[in-house]
Amino acid sequence: MCSSSLDSCLEYMIHYSRIFNREITVA
Questions:
Q1: Over the stretch 1-27, which tens digit does the pLDDT of each residue have?
Q2: Range of 21's domain?
Q3: In angstroms, rounded to a whole number, what is the distance separating the alpha carbons of residues 8 and 22?
Q4: Into how many domains does the chain fold?
């Protein structure tokens, strides 16, 4: 998933972290 660039991966996780904020709060 994070093989091309970490920058894109970070934005991807941040985008989903806002959507699944409740489940990613623990992790």
A1: 556 676 777 888 888 878 777 665 555
A2: 1-27
A3: 22
A4: 1
Cα within 13 Å of Cα(1), Cβ side: 5
For 13, the token pair is 């996780």
Look at residue 11 in the predicted model and tell me its pLDDT: 84
pTM, full prediction? 0.37
CA distances to 5, 16, 22 from 12, rounded to whole Å, are: 11, 6, 17
Name residues whose C-beta falls within 8 Å of residue 9's C-beta, 6 or more positions apart in sequence: 1, 2
